[in-house]
Write a structure and sequence with these properties.
mainly alpha, 8 helices, about 0% strand, about 190 residues
Length: about 190
Amino acid sequence: MSPTVALLALGCEGGGTALEQAVCTATGPTGLVIIAVYSFLIAFVLPLPSEVVLPPAATLNLGLPTALNYVVVIVVSGLGKAAGSVFAFHIGQEAKQSGPVIRFLRRSRFDIVEWSESKVVELSRRYGYLGLALALSVPGFPDTLSIYAFSVLEEDYMKFAAATFAGSVGRLVVTIVVVGSGVVLL
């Protein structure tokens, strides 16, 4: 199986949300805008996979070699996710100032505060923004939870944006390497 065909198996062969299908069929400059918007949204509101931005690179029709299309898609997706993460970061900064929000989160069915205080706080304390970038580099894991958990813990917008950009780029590169090597992603 070629790497391009294997990448299509990342979510672009049937199924998926309407937004995921729009990403999968994206072409041209408008396709890059769709990829950027999708990446922005998955950073703060949609628990959808980042990897679906890769298959369109093979048929993007930008007049560039396919390898360069991948670079463009990875950079556009990374910038979109960084912008979305800054939005999430702002929401997190506002939420940590709000006692009622934290109390609500502690009482919720999914105790995100407890989870973030255990796993993500440990990662953040140990590795800082590098920890965020590493967490976001794991293919198949939803970004939204990690981004919000880190957003409540950290305070530097630029470092946060840089870490989410690096993590997003890292995740897509890892995905390409793993898929290109023939390893099956679950």
